[in-house]
Amino acid sequence: MDLLIKGGKVVTATSTFKADVAVTNGKISAIGTNLKPGKKTEVVDAKGKYILPGALDGHTHMAMPFGGTISTDDYFTGTRAAACGGTTTIFNFETQAPGQPMIDLVNEKLELAEKQGPAIDFSLHVGVGDVTTKEMLYGMDKVVDAGITSFKVFMVYDFGVDDGQFYSTLTHASEIGALVGVHAENNDVNKFLVNKYLEEGKVEPWYHYMSKYEAVAGEADERAINLAKMAGAPLYIVHLDNAQGVAAVAKARAEGYPIFAETCPQYLYFTKEVYKNGRKEVGLRPQDFVCSPPMKGKESKDALWEGIKTGVVSTLATDHCPFLQKEKDWGIVQKDGKTPGNFTTIPNGCAGVENMYPFILSEANKGKISFNKAVEIAATNPAKLFGVDYCKGAIEVGLDADIVIYDPKKNVTINNKKNQHGALDHTVWEGVECKGYPCAVYSHGNLVFDGKDFVGKQGAGKFVKQKKFKTKGPQL
Ligand code: DUC
Ligand code: ZN
Ligand code: ZN
Questions:
Q1: DSSP readout, 101-157?
Q2: Which of 441, 386, 433 is nearest to 412 (CA)?
Q3: CB of 52 within 8 A of CB of 404?
Q4: Residues 6+ apart with CB under 8 A from 461
Q5: Residue 348 CA: which ligand 1 atom is closest?
């Protein structure tokens, strides 16, 4: 036995109990009371603390080209930040270029990841950019053979799919044991509204929200669900943000369909008001919050919380996609330094990979949801949905020792300069108070966060293979 975490309270998705946790060769080797250390065992006192599985962030965009730049965190700095927030696995989106065989994209990005050196384990989701021919569509098979069984289609953006391509992707994915995620927004309505507002000279970040308001996402959520039902395929809606979509997912699940939804902390904490005023009190401007989909109104925020409580929302993830403030300012003056900008010339995305687990655990600590629910949506369910529950997502004998020791009495106020570990120059989470915080994080039994600093190693993280997706109904 290499490590013995003694006297803490183990939290799983379904139960909470006092136990010691032993780690041998990077795996959880025993869970029980009064476990005895060996001569060389490191013993950690966890009295008064919770022992949780490391979170899995099923939605990140590290090193992603977007809006004329590349997201600020790469596979190292982004995973360093993740580790310091108790996330021990990420799933990074990589999107296929037109005409590019999907497997070439995968090989290229695995090479990039290896070069940048992730601090924790990772896998990929393949963003479907070209399924215009049978050959391109069947390119998914090689990706599944390589151990990646999750794909994502976009209903918006120039590289997005039309409904026919979406339907064929869903159909083929379900034949080969893969799960399709969707970024659901109505492209045509969005484009119409963008043009309308720009013609009217309405260029401020508020119109980013106005051109992607609740129903723009809600309609697309409903259509995506209909297409999945027609194709007889499972579906995963990423970053669900609106009440209409929550109702649609609830209905489909109640009817027995394998429809799953993810939401993100930003939709549970902020509202559309940030596009009017930013958060002046901590130096954040409206453009700093521009991400897609944008934050919605309070009714949607409340519906998402309710969806988490009732099991309609299955997972929490971040959509971590950081851009520097000078890039966010391209909404005022564009990259060339002279052309006036507008809400469409702001790179879309915000940071969050370090904040997801502390945020949801803090909400649990305040009594909004149970700790079990927080573990379920941030660790256990993403592990199941993305086919890595054979090694991750729970405190269980035989699984990787990706462990968070959580101190419910340690209060931390997010301060980008003082206590955050990514590469970004700001965070939308600035000044947010967390009641309770991770005080130690382990990846494969190795300490990666000591409660203050990153103490892991660049390059220690490895690619994790996903098994095939077989779930036929709404239960995982
Ligand atoms: N939304 C974002 O905010 N950033 C990257 C991609 C996306 O869909
Ligand atoms: Zn998206
Ligand atoms: Zn995304």
A1: -HHHHHHHHHHHHHHH--SSEEEEEEE----SSHHHHTTHHHHHHTT--EEEEESSS
A2: 433
A3: yes
A4: 79, 117, 118, 119, 120, 121, 122, 443
A5: 3
pTM confidence score = 0.98
Neighbours of 65 (CB within 10 A): 11
Tallying the residues shown for the chain, one arrives at 476
Distance 321 CA to ligand 1 centre (A): 7
Structure tokens at 34: 């009064």
CA distance 170 to 336: 40
Task: Give tens-digit pLDDT for 341-373.
Answer: 999 999 999 999 999 999 999 999 999 999 999
| 298-310 helix and 243-254 helix, angle to the nearest 10 degrees | 30
- Mutate which of 125, 321, 328, 343 to test ligand 1's pocket (most atoms within 8 Å of Cβ)? 321
Task: Give distance in angstroms: CA of 375 to centre of ligand 2.
Answer: 23
Alpha-carbon distance values, 332 to 54, 275, 335, 346 (Å):
40, 14, 10, 8
If phi > 0 it is left, if psi is from -120 to 50 it is alpha, else beta; for residue 387 that is: left
**How confident is the model over 34-88, as pLDDT tens digits?**
999 999 999 999 999 999 999 999 999 999 999 899 999 999 999 999 999 999 9
Candidate of 319, 323, 353 to mutate for ligand 1, largest count of ligand atoms within 8 Å of Cβ: 319
Token couple for 86: 């108790």
Ligand 3 centroid to Cα of residue 332, in Å, is 24
Distances 329 to 60, 193, 350 between C-alpha atoms, Å: 22, 22, 14
The H or E element spanning position 250 is helix 243-254
